[in-house]
TrEMBL record:
One MF term in the entry's GO annotations: dioxygenase activity
Occurrences of domain Vanillate O-demethylase oxygenase-like C-terminal catalytic (ranges): 103-272
Keywords per UniProt: Dioxygenase, Oxidoreductase
Annotated protein name in UniProt: Aromatic ring-hydroxylating dioxygenase subunit alpha
Listed Pfam families: VanA_C
């Protein structure tokens, strides 16, 4: 296999490569250090080629997913909210980030940074405490779930005003480079779903694809996308200025705090999987 890694966590899983090209069109992108060509034939069938080699590909959730080895260890994760009636589906586009994708997922799970990095949006001083929440690995799927997460936010989404409220969160990690956030919706009793699907360009670069499956009848697509880009734009320089571009999984290079229960679980989950791609070797 000509990719930059031999890590089965990457080679034997389904990796996002962005939206499919229009019928009879093609576009180039990068995956695991190599240039791949995505195309859609006149019958609407997607293809992904690496030189003369055809890679296993499937369209799901508005994107193409590629299994580099052609031998997926498991099916692609389920995303039932994608097909629920009444939800708006908005692709917020891909944003390049110069850091390991593991860093991006860990940041996605972290509520403690809200008041400092996302002030007046997802948090605000003095509301800085991360209340205790629950984290477990679901035995039937192997996915990480963080539940009972609550945080006071000035403006939780494009649909919310700036009066502030306590927002309920649930996090789900399906793959090392794919996670979901479920949070209080503008529609009472419902949760909006936000998917973060990372395309691994190489060990220290990803393209972050964000997909909304939300209840919001008052915002335009442009407003929903702009809100997500604002939040991601605040995270991007922090992520890219980490002392280590790759994630340390061993040793005491970075010490978690009480509010980092999800991070601790995620790192342990990666170690148990034998994750090597995007990981900083122990000193």
């Amino acid at each position: 296999m000509p990719f930059v890694t031999d890590d089965p966590n990457m080679l034997d899983d389904w990796l996002v490569v962005g939206p499919a090209p229009a019928p009879s069109a093609s576009r180039a992108t990068r995956l695991l250090g190599e240039a791949v060509l995505l195309s859609t034939d006149a019958d609407g069938m997607p293809h992904c080629s690496l030189g003369d080699m055809q890679l296993a590909v499937q369209p799901r959730y508005g994107y193409l997913w590629v299994c580099p080895s052609g031998r997926p260890a498991r099916p692609l994760f389920d995303f039932p909210e994608y097909g629920e009636p009444g939800r708006r589906l908005v692709d917020c586009g891909g944003i390049g980030v110069a850091v390991s994708g593991l860093r991006v997922i860990e940041n996605f799970l972290d509520m403690a940074h809200f008041p400092f990095v996302h002030a007046d949006y997802l948090g605000k001083v003095p509301h800085t405490e991360v209340a205790q929440y629950q984290v477990q690995v679901e035995p039937s799927t192997g996915e990480i779930w963080a539940t009972d997460c609550r945080f006071w936010q000035p403006r939780a989404s494009a649909a919310h005003d700036s009066s502030g409220s306590e927002v309920l969160y649930k996090y789900r990690v399906m793959q090392p480079f794919s996670a979901m956030l479920y949070k209080s919706s503008f529609r009472a009793g419902e949760l909006d779903a936000i998917g973060l699907f990372l395309q691994p360009v190489d060990d220290e670069h990803v393209i972050a694809h964000t997909l909304l499956a939300c209840y919001d009848d008052g915002s335009t697509d442009a407003e929903l996308i702009a809100f997500q880009h604002t939040i991601f734009g605040q995270d991007k320089p922090i992520l890219e200025n980490h002392a280590f571009k790759r994630m340390p999984l061993e040793g005491r290079a970075e010490t978690p705090t009480r509010g980092d229960t999800s991070s601790v679980t995620y790192r342990r989950w990666l170690r148990e999987r034998g994750m090597r791609f995007g990981v900083r070797a122990a000193a």
